[in-house]
Design brief:
Blueprint: E1 6-10, H1 19-28, E2 33-39, H2 51-60, E3 65-70, H3 78-81, E4 88-92, H4 99-106, E5 112-117, E6 135-139, H5 153-167, E7 174-178, H6 183-192, E8 196-199, H7 212-223
Parallel strand pairs: 1-2, 1-8, 2-3, 3-4, 4-5, 5-6, 6-7, 7-8
Helix pairs in contact: 6-7
């Protein structure tokens, strides 16, 4: 577990009209990552942020990107994205038959390699790839849409995951949690051992853009 908890702001929750102002708020308040949900309409039943959005966002800010690839066969699409060394890139265990190969193909980019798993995917699938990853993105909702309620069994799953990493002597692996991360859920997950918190409509994007700064402070207090 990282000594300092970090916020990854879910950019699919932003209103494009307020994007520049939102980025300025995030910079002032030290938001550590911008979470980019890339969705292809095949792996998940929704279309999400794409490569042009990522390029445009890099021109607006130097906040590192947390790129969550919810796409089928990501190994063949990595070169499209423009991955930087400062990025986190999550690929889904369920998105490829060759998970270890995808992680290998990510290595030359120098980014942090995370493996994401859906709520119903058992944590045992992680055991054979721990040597290839820097972190795990634990989905607390089924991926594809913002504003869902947390699947309650995922809280117990987070405990099992942290215990598994301890037993494997791999507490250096970062645990990121994604989906309905309210301040209350964030506090509990921080106690369990999570380090990066994807913040969307349940926390920092509640209300209007003028509310975001206050919302960030509330989430920070919960996960400290």
């Amino acid at each position: 577990m990282k000594e300092k908890a970090e916020i990854s702001a879910s950019m699919m929750c932003t209103d494009l009209v307020d994007l520049y102002e939102t980025i300025q708020i995030f910079e002032r308040n030290g938001v550590e990552h911008l979470h980019i949900d890339v969705m292809d309409g095949t792996f998940v039943p929704n279309l999400g942020l794409g490569v042009d959005y990522i390029r445009g966002l890099r021109k607006l800010t130097s906040i590192p990107l947390d790129i969550h690839l919810m796409i089928k066969d990501p190994e063949y699409k990595l070169q499209w994205i423009g991955i930087k060394e400062t990025d986190i890139v999550s690929i889904h265990y369920e998105s490829s038959f060759q998970v270890q190969r995808v992680l290998d193909w990510l290595q030359p980019y120098g980014c942090q390699r995370f493996l994401a798993i859906n709520p119903a995917t058992p944590i045992g699938v992680l055991e054979e790839v721990l040597d290839y990853i820097d972190g795990i993105n634990l989905l607390m909702v089924n991926p594809g849409f913002a504003g869902q309620k947390m699947i309650q069994s995922t809280m117990k799953k987070a405990e099992k995951l942290v215990n598994m990493l301890k037993q494997a002597q791999r507490e250096d692996i970062i645990v990121e949690v994604d989906g309905n991360i309210t301040p209350e859920h964030g506090r509990r997950l921080r106690e369990i051992g999570a380090s990066i918190f994807v913040a969307g409509k349940s926390s920092i994007f509640k209300g209007k853009v003028d509310d975001y700064e206050h919302n960030i402070k509330i989430l920070r207090q919960a996960i400290e």
